[in-house]
Amino acid sequence: MDHWLTIEVFDGESTASLWRLARGDALTEAALTNGAEQWVWHEHRWGVVLEIEFKSEESRDAFRALPVVTAALDAVPDPTRGLLVYPGRGGGAGSRMPRKPRPLPMAGAGAVPVPMESVKMGLAEAVPPMFSEVC
C-alpha cells in the first residue's frame, strides 16, 4: 500500500517558489535517504505542493521527524497560516476511481419550453347611462 505525505506551502511574506528553491533539495535528499520511492512538486498560483511516497508508515514518520524537515517547515513564507502537512495525497488527488464524465452539451440541445398559460379575455357589457343630459 502507498504511504504518501503531502506538504502544502502557501505564499506569504515571500513566495513559496523561493522557499522551494531554498529548501527543496534538502527535503528531497532527506526523503530519498529515508525510504522515499517517488516524489512530485506541484506549482500553483497560491504556492507549492510536495507529495512524497514512502515504502512504509515508519519511514514516512521518520522523515517527518528529521531536523532538516522541521527546519524547512519552520522557514515557510507564512508560518501562521501558510503550511499544511498531512498523510495521503494532495486535496486534488481524489479517489483512485475516475469520475464519470458529465454528458456533453449537444448542438441541438435547447431549453425546456415554458408552458403557456391560457388567458380568457372578453368585452364588458355596455351599460346605458343612468342620467341623461337635458339640453
Helix content estimate: 25-40%
How many strands, what sense, and barrel or not for the largest sheet? Answer: 4 strands, antiparallel
Distance between the termini: 109 Å
Strand order of the largest sheet: 2-3-1-4
Global Rg: 34 Å
Strand content: 15-25%
Extended strand count? 4
The ordered H/E elements are: EHEEHHE
Structural class by secondary-structure content: alpha+beta
Count of discrete alpha- or pi-helical segments spanning 4 or more residues: 3
Q: Return residue spans where pLDDT drops below 50 for at least 5 consecutive residues.
A: none
Envelope shape: elongated
Structural overview:
The protein has 135 residues and is an alpha+beta fold. It is 25% helix and 21% strand. It has helices at residues 16-33, 57-64, 67-74; strands spanning 3-10, 36-43, 47-54, 83-87. The chain has a 4-stranded antiparallel beta sheet. A hairpin with a 3-residue loop joins strand 2 and strand 3.
What is the gist of this entry?
This protein has three helices and four strands, in the order E-H-E-E-H-H-E. The protein has 135 residues and is an alpha+beta fold.
Core attributes:
135 residues; alpha+beta; four-stranded antiparallel beta sheet
Q: How is the secondary structure organized here?
A:
Blueprint: E1 3-10, H1 16-33, E2 36-43, E3 47-54, H2 57-64, H3 67-74, E4 83-87
Antiparallel strand pairs: 1-3, 1-4, 2-3
